[in-house]
Amino acid sequence: MAERKPLISGNWKMHMNHLEAIQFIQKLSYALDQADYKSADVSIHPPFTNLRSAQTVLDADNIPVALGAQHCHWEERGAFTGEVSPTMLAKLAVSYVIAGHSERRQLFGETDDNVNLRLKAILAAGMTPIMCCGETLDEREADQTEARITDQVDGGLAGLKRDQVGAMVIAYEPVWAIGTGRTATPADAQAGCGLIRERVAANFGANAAAGVRIQYGGSVKPVNVAELMAQPDIDGALVGGASLEVDSFSRIIRFRLQ
Ligand code: PGA
User: Fold this and answer.
1) Which ligand 1 atom lies nearest to the CA of residue 103?
2) Any ligand 1 atom below 6 A from CB of 224
3) Which of 13, 192, 232, 237 could form a disulfide with 172 if both were Cys (CB 3.0 to 4.6 A apart)?
4) CATH code, 172
5) Using one digit for the tens of pLDDT, what is the confidence trace for 5-36?
6) Does 245 contact ligand 1 (Cβ within 6 A)?
């Protein structure tokens, strides 16, 4: 089986304006070198307003960091005030789009059905989705972790083709670990990611399961990244808070080389 190259993604959430984004990217590019890019793929996911500036800097300086978005609508255009379409993102050279982050599910009412529509639209526009899933603390305490992840994976991926699933990214993000400083233990993170890969295998076959990259997200830091990434089913990290500082984000990217 070909080794899956880790993908380290920085989810900026609603942080940084476009000027701060430019500075951040320039500093990040000084902090990283060819060995870092060889050991991991890197994506950054700034707010929509920063994408154009970020793309210009990445392009002009030839920085091998992929541009990502945090969200999109599934329609190509229309009367959807406040929304941004996948084709608009693709035009800005966005490669990865996060879909179904728990904050979108909890605060903005996203469901597995509309995550599914988003995934199809992201793929149709030629980009790679990062679909997030994970249980809340209540669900975990009620022994619902497995059922929740299964529903989210089955619902989110419904109707996709095997090769599409094999080339996409799924992030396991236990909601209780996001922004709380409470990281899942490597064993818990592996259990979640392993379950996701099993569901992919059951629904889309062994090749899709071997290809799909599964990230762990939830309070990933330079101190805990290496032991998380050492788990067999963890192929990268979706990093929130620690992706906002060049020092911590670059140390996370360099987890193999530390
Ligand atoms: P965190 O966020 O690293 O700040 O916990 C992760 C995420 O929400 O993707």
Assistant:
1) 8
2) no
3) 192
4) 3.20.20.70
5) 999 999 999 999 999 999 999 999 999 999 99
6) no
Q: Is residue 1 part of a domain?
A: no
Question: From ligand 1's centre to the CA of 65, what distance in Å?
Answer: 19
Determine if ligand 1 sits within 6 Å of the CB of residue 218: yes
Q: Distance between CA atoms of 230 and 179, rounded to whole angstroms? A: 22
pLDDT in tens, 183-236: 899 999 999 999 999 999 999 999 999 999 999 999 999 999 999 999 999 999
Count of structural domains within the chain: 1
Give the active site residues: 101, 173
**Residue 2 belongs to a domain:** no
Whether residue 99 lies inside any domain: the answer is yes
* Closest residue to atom 1 of ligand 1, CA basis: 240
Non-local CB neighbours of 235 within 8 Å, separated by 6+ positions: 4, 5, 6, 7, 213, 214, 215
